UniProtKB/TrEMBL annotation:
InterPro entries: DUF6427. Signal peptide: none annotated. The keyword Ribonucleoprotein does not apply. This is DUF6427 family protein. The keyword Membrane applies. The chain crosses the membrane at residues 12-32, 38-63, 75-106, 126-153, 165-185, 208-228, 240-260, 266-282, 289-306. Keywords: Membrane, Transmembrane, Transmembrane helix.
Length: 307
């Protein structure tokens, strides 16, 4: 059964999941994204897929390094299934690039649980979030997650408050100098057009309505079930849980204001969704329920290509 197979981390699991992701990618191209064939087009598609694999690898590293879940592959499985479900996310290049850089920043934020190299972590987190914002302006909201982490990990002091700001400003200033030097300052200003859209009628489409409804129901149920249990756990677990929840909140804000609502914006939500639901699956005593939930996400990820 699917729950039993992904209950452990094995080298073959990542290969299987990468292959499944490739199948989703090919299905999406064949059904919705195919253009006139050329070697340039083929190279672009290959490059996009490499970015997605990078997203998966960095997510896996963050989860394992910071023990956000136990020793299982449910989070990676859910990441792949959700990517397959919200297939538009695999083809929106600015959002994919922004999320890869955001993950590099999240890696530093979550690692603040240890006291080593705090100064560098704060600068690096701000730096990567600043780079991400150059590709997708709303990404700048995640800078607030750094300060939430400082509060949660009790690292508040004047220098620590300033370091993320310096980190954020650094890539933005470098890009401004680059644009100024080559007479393309307008390109810099265009990066900071915070266009927004609060019209959610596109979510009435079954391709989005069904997976969003199921994902929200699963994550809300997981939060309601897990939070009381986490509150009586060790301090490290409680702190990590609070950061994941705040991560989810900031992702929801970005999605709420995203100018284009076609499913690609859901990429911001996939990481915290997967971590939260995985932790619920970990405590679920019923193997049948685990299988049911995972098969439900699998069926959803396939059905969107036929709705």
């Amino acid at each position: 059964m699917i729950a039993n197979f992904f209950n452990k981390t094995k080298p073959i699991v990542f290969f299987i999941l990468a292959s499944l992701l490739f199948v989703y990618y090919i299905l999406a191209i064949a059904n919705f994204k195919f253009e006139a064939f050329s070697f340039l087009w083929l190279a672009q598609q290959f490059g996009f897929f490499v970015l997605i694999i990078g997203f998966l690898l960095i997510s896996s590293f963050i989860i394992k390094k910071n023990t956000l879940t136990q020793n299982n592959s449910y989070a990676l499985l859910l990441l792949v299934l959700l990517l397959g479900t919200f297939y538009e996310a695999m083809f929106d290049v600015p959002i994919v690039i922004a999320n890869v850089f955001l993950l590099l920043g999240f890696r530093k934020v979550y690692s603040l649980r240890t006291i080593s190299a705090t100064k560098l972590k704060l600068f690096d987190a701000g730096f990567w979030f600043g780079v991400a914002a150059l590709f997708y302006a709303w990404s700048i909201i995640f800078v607030l997650l750094i300060y939430v982490a400082l509060i949660i990990f009790e690292r508040i002091n004047v220098k620590n408050l300033i370091r993320p700001i310096v980190g954020v400003i650094t890539p933005i200033f470098i890009y401004f100098i680059y644009c100024f030097a080559f007479g393309s300052v307008n390109d810099f200003y265009n990066c900071w057009e915070f266009n927004f859209n609060v019209n959610y009628t596109s979510y009435n489409n079954l391709k989005l309505l069904l997976p969003i409804s199921v994902s929200l129901a699963a994550v809300i149920w997981s939060i309601v079930t897990l939070t009381p249990k986490v509150s009586v756990s060790g301090i490290h677990i409680k702190r990590a849980w609070r950061i994941v929840l705040n991560h989810l909140i900031f992702a929801a804000i970005i999605i709420a204001f995203a100018p284009i609502k076609n499913g690609s914006e859901m990429l911001f939500m996939i990481f915290p969704f997967s971590v939260i639901i995985t932790n619920y699956l970990r405590i679920s005593p019923s193997e049948n329920f685990k299988n049911l939930l995972l098969y439900l996400f699998l069926i959803l990820s396939i059905s969107v290509y036929f709705l």
